[in-house]
């Protein structure tokens, strides 16, 4: 059985033998709706009337946008509340013969009275005969409405206290207790935890989810599954859109648990495998298990940075940055995943989490934490620049050779930190590897050598307030980078001069923007994009026009078409005090970018006086 999380791309199995062309002529006329084959009228496979015939709704998993609002409309049309989707694989119940599957998107905004009010679109030629196309595995669409699961009694079991444990249900007209199955992800878990704790008489704001079988399975059959089907405001769990399961079902995503009034599920926290007690692989010890386990965090390191600061604070240290993708080693199996910590949390027991084994976490996804005072990076330099204030950022780790850092769209704050650590002001990114890609040589299949960067670090994420890069988050580089983090600090005159040219004449307040670099003049790519308002203000201010600046198409000014396009992606942000393009981030256009043409040259209209 499959639960929510798939895209709600809907197709209609037309029972009448039609041709694809005829079916594409008009959108189907959707009439009544019903839920078939389920344990109650509130749960089952979606069937709709199309042109007077009952047909099955089928979902494809490989395309379409996720839309959880369609099930709400289905339930409203049936006179119920709530609404969540689930899927189960196609089977022999699909019609045979010349039946055609008409694929298309059913898009609802959630306020419609019926599915007929939703928008249905079908692309011409987008048909799958008999639902047998192996490249488009189809799934029946099911919907469960609120009240499908009638609960007689609710309890927590397997935890260290009465307020913490595995959620177990006694369904109406049953004498057998069963477990509540969790979801594959943690997205809906906190809302369900709030409802469970409220129903048990606890303050819902203190509720924390404990997914992935943290408190074991209890050996009970699965009674119901989260879809997720709560919004967190329900008074009782049966008011949620939970899916009723048969006695033969098992929890594919493991039993769901909650903590309602303080948690002791994590009995120990430490940082191991790092250069000091202030940095290392984040490890936890769980209740009833004397072994240490890693923490799974496969997302980008900046997403985990607030939790890293919480860990450091709970250990008595300051700061807190992430070291992702097994930075401090991969020899420990993860124990927990899906950490979500609120602002009131004082340690990891105040966070929601799940057992890592239910999330398919590999050892290389274990996360590391570096608190203030750690020193992964021992030396920093700018290499291969024309002055000491600019160049390719290189770092020396603990006893390592010099390494480079992969560039990223979020590198502007890191550039500021690099310059601050080196004793300079400012800090702007120079993209396009203008200072080379490093000294590492590899051989290709033909035996010729080519250069690749010795990247050790990627996803470098700084807030911009740090004093050195050790306070920033990053993760182990997964591949070599051809675009390396390069930085120009205050005082670096990468752009030696700027001008506006109009019909070949320079010196006015408007014209095509041209820059001089290395003694060569050229244009700036980015009229339609890649040149922000801050950059326009900086260029005009550098030219002696501090008033409002307007970006225009440089082709409006007849100028020398033989000049090369020197830079692109110029960005100063919203800073109003930039007085030069040298303070902005930009990319070298060498080798030339295929999307940069003279038709997109930047032009500016500057003004002398401010409107203030």
TrEMBL record:
The keyword Metal-binding does not apply. Keywords: Disulfide bond, Signal. GO terms for cellular component: membrane. The keyword Hydrolase does not apply. This is SRCR domain-containing protein. InterPro entries: SRCR, SRCR-like_dom_sf. Residues 1-23 form the signal peptide. Pfam families: SRCR (PF00530). It comes from the Eukaryota. Residues 33-146, 154-261, 269-372, 380-490, 498-607 form the SRCR domain.
């Amino acid at each position: 059985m499959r639960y929510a999380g798939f895209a709600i791309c809907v197709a209609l199995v037309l029972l009448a033998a039609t041709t694809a062309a005829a079916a594409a002529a008009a959108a189907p006329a959707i009439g009544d709706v019903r839920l078939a084959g389920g344990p109650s009228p509130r749960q089952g496979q979606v069937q709709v009337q199309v042109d007077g015939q009952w047909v099955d709704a089928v979902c494809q998993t490989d395309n379409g946008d996720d839309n959880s609002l369609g099930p709400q409309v289905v339930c409203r049309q049936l006179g119920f509340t709530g609404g969540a989707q689930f899927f189960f694989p196609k089977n022999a119940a699909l019609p045979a013969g010349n039946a055609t599957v008409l694929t298309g998107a059913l898009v609802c905004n959630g306020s419609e009275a019926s599915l007929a009010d939703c928008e249905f679109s079908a692309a011409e030629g987008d048909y799958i005969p008999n639902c047998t196309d192996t490249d488009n595995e189809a799934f029946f669409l099911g919907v469960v409405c609120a009240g499908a699961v009638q609960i007689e009694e609710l309890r927590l079991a397997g935890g260290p206290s009465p307020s913490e444990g595995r959620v177990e249900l006694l369904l109406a007209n049953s004498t057998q207790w069963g477990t509540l199955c969790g979801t594959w992800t943690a997205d809906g878990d906190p809302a369900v935890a709030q409802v469970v704790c409220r129903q048990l008489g606890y303050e819902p704001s203190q509720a924390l989810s404990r997914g992935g079988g943290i408190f074991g399975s209890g050996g009970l059959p699965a009674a119901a599954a989260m879809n997720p089907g709560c919004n967190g405001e329900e008074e009782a769990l049966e008011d949620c859109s939970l899916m009723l399961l048969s006695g033969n079902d098992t929890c594919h995503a493991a039993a769901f648990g909650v903590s309602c009034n303080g948690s002791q599920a994590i009995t120990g926290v430490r940082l191991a495998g790092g250069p000091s007690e202030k940095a290392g692989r984040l490890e936890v010890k769980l209740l009833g298990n004397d072994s240490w386990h890693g923490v799974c965090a496969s997302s980008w390191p900046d997403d985990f940075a607030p939790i890293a600061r919480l860990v450091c604070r709970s250990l008595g240290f300051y700061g807190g940055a992430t070291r992702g993708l097994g930075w401090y080693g991969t020899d420990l199996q993860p124990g927990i995943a899906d950490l979500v910590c609120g602002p009131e949390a004082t340690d990891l027991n105040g966070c929601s989490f799940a057992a890592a084994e239910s999330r398919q976490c590999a050892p290389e996804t274990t996360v590391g934490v570096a608190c203030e005072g750690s020193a992964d990076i021992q030396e920093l330099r700018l290499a291969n620049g024309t002055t000491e204030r600019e160049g390719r950022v290189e770092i020396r780790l603990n006893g390592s050779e010099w390494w480079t850092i992969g560039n990223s769209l979020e590198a502007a704050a890191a550039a500021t930190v690099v310059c601050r650590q080196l004793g300079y002001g400012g800090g702007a990114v120079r993209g396009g590897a203008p200072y080379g890609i490093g000294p590492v040589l590899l051989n290709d299949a033909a035996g010729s050598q080519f250069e690749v960067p010795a990247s050790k670090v990627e996803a470098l994420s700084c807030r911009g307030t740090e004093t050195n890069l050790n306070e920033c988050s990053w993760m182990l580089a997964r591949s070599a980078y051809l675009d390396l983090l390069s930085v120009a600090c205050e005082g670096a005159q990468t752009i030696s001069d700027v001008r506006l040219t109009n019909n070949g004449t320079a010196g006015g307040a408007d014209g095509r923007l041209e820059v001089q670099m290395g003694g060569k003049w050229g244009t700036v790519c980015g009229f339609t994009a890649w040149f922000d308002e801050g950059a326009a203000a900086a260029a005009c201010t550098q030219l002696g026009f501090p008033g409002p600046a307007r970006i225009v198409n440089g082709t409006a000014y007849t100028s020398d078409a033989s000049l090369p396009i020197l830079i692109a992606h110029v960005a100063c942000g919203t800073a109003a005090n930039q007085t030069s393009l040298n303070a902005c981030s930009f990319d070298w256009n060498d080798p030339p970018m295929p999307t940069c043409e003279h038709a997109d040259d930047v032009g500016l209209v500057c003004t002398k006086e401010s409107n203030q």
